[in-house]
Amino acid sequence: MTTHRLEGQSALVTGGAGGFGLACARLLARDGAAVTLMGRTEDKLEAAKRAILAKYPDAQVRTLAGDAMSEADVGAAMDLAASGLQPFCIVVATVGGSRSRGFVDTDADAFMDTVAYNVRSAYIAIREGIRRIECGGAFAFVSSTAAEIPFDGMPGYCAGKAALDQLVRAAAHELGHLGHRFNAVRPGLTRTGATPGLFANAAMMKRFIERIPLGRAGEPEEIAEAIRFLVGPEASWTTGQSFAVDGGNELRAAPDMSAR
Q1: Residues near 27 by beta carbon (within 8 Å), at least 6 away in sequence
Q2: Is 75 exposed, middle or buried (0-12, 13-18, 19+ CB in 10 A)?
Q3: Does the reported pTM lie above 0.70?
């Protein structure tokens, strides 16, 4: 159901062709925002744009290929988002993931690369965003339950997502006087393009589901609904928060993901 509650606003979604990014962009477009999608692959961005327009033919969607780890690329995408008639005021940053393995198999450089992959893109989105949004910006980030509960073989990812959550709090504290809001969502196990191997592993899925009180994995649309709330007027007095959308996984613990 279209609400038009974001009509007259312009949004940038980094990682816009990915599972979380596309799901978020759909909801922003549904509710009237002009959406700019940024990602590294032009063909995937164009496919994402077509998918949004197929569902919402009147949506305003633009794309720009670029790297969320590059200040210049993110700045260019924000300039594109700000070039229309609608004021640019929404940033959704979804880029992140694991680029290393466990302690034994990961040297310090690889560990730090993974930490940076999960927090540098968020920092760039904040810094470039506040240079272009004078006041009242709404920033939302995709964190992970790994920020709160440790997972086997993922020290860099856990540390990076924990750093992201603290970065969100620091930004909310320092920049709140400008009316900017910064929040994050911590997804649990969710079906995206990054998780097909896990979903195909019946034994591992069984271990995961046993740790999820609601008894199932999540879908990108369920994460996107939380992001949409955080960047919209419904969350106008919410900032510095990170909350789990995980079926209750954080109430228990991560499954045993070791090779034992």
Answers
A1: 221, 224, 225, 227, 228
A2: middle
A3: yes
Known catalytic residues are: 157
Any idea which architecture 10-243 has in CATH?
Answer: 3-Layer(aba) Sandwich (3.40)
Taking alpha carbons only, the member of 117, 156, 161 closest to residue 141 is 161
State which amino acid sits at residue 105.
D
* pLDDT score at 3: 72
Angstrom distance (rounded) from CA 125 to CA 74: 7
Rounded mean pLDDT for each run of 10 residues along the chain, 260 residues in total? 86 97 98 98 98 98 98 98 96 92 94 97 98 98 97 95 98 98 98 89 94 98 98 98 98 80
Residue 256, strand partner residues: none
Distance, CA of 54 to CA of 197 (rounded, Å):
29
